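Hey Z.,

So I finally got round to the NAP thing we talked about over coffee. Here's the setup:
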Amino acid sequence: MKYLITGATGDVGARVTRQLLERGIRPRVLTRSEEKARALFGDSVDVCAGDLGDPASTRTVIQGADVIFLVNIGPEIPRRDETAAKIAKEEGVRRIVKLSSLDVEEGLAIGAWHEKGERAIRDAGVPFTFVRPTGFMSNLLAWAHSIKTEGVVRSSTGDGRRAFIHSEDIASVSVAALLTDEYVGRALPITGPESLTWTEVAEIISNAIGRSLRYELLSDEEARARYAKISGSAEETEAHVALWRAIREGRLGAVTDCVERVLGRKPIALEQWVAENLSSFLG
Ligand SMILES: NC(=O)c1ccc[n+]([C@@H]2O[C@H](COP(=O)([O-])OP(=O)(O)OC[C@H]3O[C@@H](n4cnc5c(N)ncnc54)[C@H](OP(=O)(O)O)[C@@H]3O)[C@@H](O)[C@H]2O)c1
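And the result:
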């Protein structure tokens, strides 16, 4: 079996790649920057320089692959998933494991992009598994600066809850889906162990760093203005504002037992993630 890992230099894809290497599997990895991939994996993987936004290079990298871990980001997700799936079908790929989103179930914001991507993959007729995680614990690194400089956590999510998930759990479930056909034709809705408000998350970080933190509620307008400064596009900004609003409205707080069903153990708790990332919140 030849495994193609896209997003291999990213948070989840790098962990998927490492887990395959630990099993003695040498994957092919797609990156726009060969240098970045070499810095992470040295010569232990086959590096393919390419771009999922470019159909010709997508075909080159897919040719000869049996199983694909597909990561697309941003508003281009539907088109890029469709292109990859059509090429995969033509090239005889045996299955695609797509990193999707639990928010597909609500059909909003970034989840709506993934919903269209999933549909394109189903329509292409390649056997698939959709790994649908909730919000990543690693998103909380975006708080590091205001925690360090002001002792403040800000958001427009109010008392809404999210069952944040560790990227290692997402990778482990993805690897399970890559290695066998047990999960073909299924969506795997995965979450962390408990659904927490932003105030509760701030308390966990506060306990770990030994410093009190204050939660500050932002209006949608304030959240929009702040995110616009780092966003790639207006569409991406609106998707995030809608996502945070849906969390505030209590629509995205579900907890599932899917990680435990697939991996035979509980999902990793936020306390462990905070301990692993403590230095980011200190100083
Ligand atoms: N963050 C969340 O809370 C959350 C929740 C649910 C679902 N998700 C989904 O998870 C995915 C992001 O995963 P992640 O956080 O692991 O990724 P990430 O750390 O943001 O890394 C993005 C990866 O995508 C690759 N990439 C970007 N543009 C590319 C292109 N044009 N062609 C080829 N590769 C490209 C990058 O590779 P190079 O730079 O090396 O080319 C990099 O490896 C998204 O689909 C997102 O919607 C996220």
